[in-house]
């Protein structure tokens, strides 16, 4: 009997833990806000708002790092009133997350056209002076943000951009209406529901066993190399995309694949980066660069890549006119993918 009682207590504790799990509670709360307009409006009363202007987040500088200030609903209403704007403009905000204490976080763009604005947009210089910050392009600021702000602002920008680009129904041509949370848009004339979407992108680190292949596009900062990347085509699996992209870009045939991790990436308009390792067939390592896709590509040794991982910016032009070989910053999944390859190579070279 005592044994049965002990098992029952353990089971009860397990299910209580499951029910009280912070992650589960937080996830269920966000789901409620996305599905229930009244709950989301109530959450706005005690929530916090991140501000944007034409998709650029409001940031403040502190100790060589950017910080993303937050504003309460009352502060936002006062701000809009000061600039002669309708407080209903807050209805353009989108839900981007919440704290463990269930403080909801929203994002609002003051520079995009709004049905509630008296003019096309609020002027940026006046807003920056009032808010004691600057609206900075996220691509320029991303790697100087802490991990939480970087994730939240990336989510916010992707959602704000999607809503700005999907204001009309593709079937009826009529204006669509977003729900309070911004988790969907609905066409009132035919009830078609549109959900925000991400484009799947594979990012692949190709290796021949002792070297890895890195490439650069002309749009990259000088000296920076990264893993191969490309969008998935309609009808393709991740595996098929990797095989095709490697063949297209560098003329190599992939032999084996291994999934590593994934990451949301806000550029160019919201992507899901699916990172994988790949190896090429032995003896088939001659690169044929597709110059319509890449500027250059090359094999790099373990030592070269390990040294590049240790480099810290800024990266300036050297006396011979070249730039040092460097890799994407730590926040990018390509950096983590390359780092894992270096660590595996290091471990495999150690004596047993």
Which regions have little confidence, pLDDT < 50, spanning 5+ residues? 1-5, 12-17
The span between the termini is 52 Å
Number of strands: 16
Radius of gyration, CA atoms, in whole angstroms? 24 Å
Calculate the mean pLDDT score and round it: 89
How many helix segments?
10
The helix/strand class is: alpha+beta
Shape annotation: globular
Provide the succession of SSEs: HHHEEEEHEEHEHHEEEEEEHEEEHH
Could you characterize what this model shows?
This protein is 35% helix and 24% strand. Strands 1, 2, 3, 4, 5, 6 and 7 form a 7-stranded mixed sheet that branches. It is globular and about 65 Å long. β1 (48-53) and β2 (56-62) form a beta hairpin. α2 (22-35) packs across α3 (37-46) and α9 (302-310) packs across α10 (333-349). The protein is an alpha+beta fold. The longest helix has 19 residues, at 2-20. The protein has helices spanning 2-20, 22-35, 37-46, 73-82, 124-131, 138-141, 147-165, 238-250, 302-310, 333-349; strands at residues 48-53, 56-62, 65-67, 71-72, 94-98, 104-109, 134-135, 177-178, 185-186, 193-194, 199-207, 211-216, 228-231, 254-265, 271-280, 296-301.
List keywords for this structure.
352 residues; alpha+beta; six-stranded mixed β-sheet; 10 helices; 35% helix; 24% strand; disordered N terminus
């Amino acid at each position: 009997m005592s044994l049965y009682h002990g098992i029952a207590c353990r089971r009860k504790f397990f299910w209580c833990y499951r029910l009280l799990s912070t992650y589960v509670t937080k996830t269920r709360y966000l789901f409620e806000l996305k599905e229930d307009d009244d709950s989301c409006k109530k959450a706005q009363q005690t929530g916090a708002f991140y501000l944007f202007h034409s998709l650029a987040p409001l940031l403040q500088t502190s100790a060589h790092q950017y910080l993303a200030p937050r504003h309460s609903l009352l502060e936002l209403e006062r701000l809009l009133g000061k600039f002669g704007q309708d407080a209903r403009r807050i209805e353009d905000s989108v839900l981007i997350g919440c704290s463990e204490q269930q403080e909801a976080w929203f994002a609002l763009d003051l520079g995009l056209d709004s049905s509630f604005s008296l003019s096309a947009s609020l002027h940026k210089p006046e807003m920056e002076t009032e808010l004691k910050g600057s609206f900075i392009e996220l691509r320029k600021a991303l790697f100087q943000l802490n991990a939480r702000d970087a994730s939240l602002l990336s989510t916010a920008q992707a959602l704000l951009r999607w809503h700005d680009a999907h204001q009309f129904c593709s079937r009826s041509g009529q204006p669509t209406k977003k729900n309070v949370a911004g988790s969907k848009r609905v066409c009132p004339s035919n009830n078609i529901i549109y959900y925000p979407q991400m484009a799947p992108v594979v990012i692949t680190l190709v290796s021949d066993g002792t070297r890895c292949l890195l490439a650069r596009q002309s749009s990259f900062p000088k000296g920076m190399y990264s893993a191969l990347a490309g969008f998935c085509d309609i009808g393709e699996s991740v595996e098929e995309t990797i095989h095709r992209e490697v063949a297209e870009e560098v003329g190599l045939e992939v032999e084996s694949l291994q999934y590593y991790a994934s990451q949301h990436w806000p550029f160019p308009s919201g992507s899901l980066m699916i990172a994988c390792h790949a190896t090429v067939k032995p003896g088939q390592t001659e690169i044929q660069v597709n110059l319509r896709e890449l500027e250059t590509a090359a094999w790099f040794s373990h030592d070269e890549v390990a040294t590049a991982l240790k480099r810290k910016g800024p990266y300036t032009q050297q006396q011979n006119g070249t730039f040092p070989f460097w890799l994407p910053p730590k926040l990018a999944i390509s950096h983590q993918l390359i780092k894992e390859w270096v660590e595996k190579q290091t471990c495999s070279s150690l004596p047993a």
